[in-house]
């Protein structure tokens, strides 16, 4: 099954479906070892540019209505129509801090959202 972690870019809120509550920035997001997780950006259509980073590493870059780079493209999928970034075949190494960095159309950073990913399994 796919765990879902909902991220609002225009509000400082995360929705953790495991607990069905809105939580603050820095929320925990859980994935199952070997499973998949959806990082679901609710208001992606309102954002011109964004990046998903893990630690200091740029994972996914969205700009000019297209994916500019995705270093895990062979096990992930970004669905522009609904802002979902699905990461498949999770390993323990996928645990850690994920950061959404948001930019305006001029490339000026306008905000960040952080979540803590925890990959759990046998
Ligand atoms: C995905 O890409 C990485 C790096 O290019 C490679 O090491 C790995 O074997 C690939 N995995 C699959 C399932 O293709
Ligand atoms: C986003 O689209 C994908 C592919 O169609 C789908 O699997 C996923 O459930 C969608 N997510 C939402 C929240 O609609
Ligand atoms: C999933 O990732 C593991 C390493 O974590 C790798 O050994 C395995 O081949 C991958 N499976 C698929 C279907 O890509
Ligand atoms: C996980 O990280 C360790 C240490 O950085 C590395 O040796 C290992 O190859 C990584 N495993 C996968 C599946 O990426
Ligand atoms: C981008 O820069 C132009 C020229 O400096 C300015 O007129 C415009 O308001 C800026 N757009 C945003 C979204 O800040």
Structure description:
This protein is mainly beta and 122 residues long. It has no helices and twelve strands. Strand 1 and strand 2 form a beta hairpin. Bound molecules: 2-acetamido-2-deoxy-beta-D-glucopyranose (5 copies). Residues 75, 89, 91 line the site of one 2-acetamido-2-deoxy-beta-D-glucopyranose. Residues 1-22 form the signal peptide. Keywords: Signal. InterPro entries: CD2 (IPR015632), Ig-like_dom_sf (IPR036179), Ig-like_fold (IPR013783). This is Immunoglobulin V-set domain-containing protein.
Fraction in helix: under 10%
DSSP helical segment count: 0
Our measurement of the CA-to-CA distance between the termini, rounded to an integer number of angstroms, reads 15 Å
Radius of gyration from CA coordinates: 13 Å
CATH topology: Immunoglobulin-like
Alpha-beta classification: mainly beta
The CATH superfamily title: Immunoglobulins
Ligand inventory: 2-acetamido-2-deoxy-beta-D-glucopyranose
* Strand proportion: over 45%
Approximate shape: globular
Going across the major beta sheet, what is the strand order? 3-2-1-5-10-9
Q: Given this structure, which CATH class is correct?
A: Mainly Beta
Q: Sheet with the most strands?
A: 6 strands, mixed
Structurally, the number of domains stands at 1
């Amino acid at each position: 099954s796919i765990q879902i972690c909902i991220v609002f870019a225009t509000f400082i809120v995360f929705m953790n479906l495991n607990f069905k509550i809105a939580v603050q920035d820095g929320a925990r997001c859980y994935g199952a070892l070997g499973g998949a997780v959806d990082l679901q950006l609710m208001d992606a259509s309102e954002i011109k540019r964004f990046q998903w980073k893990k630690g200091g590493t740029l994972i996914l870059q969205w700009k000019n209505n297209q994916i500019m780079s995705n270093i895990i493209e062979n096990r992930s999928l970004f669905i522009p129509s609904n802002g979902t970034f699905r990461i498949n075949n999770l390993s323990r190494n996928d645990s850690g801090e994920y950061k959404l960095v948001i930019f305006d159309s001029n490339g000026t950073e306008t905000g960040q959202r952080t979540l803590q990913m925890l990959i759990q399994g046998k």
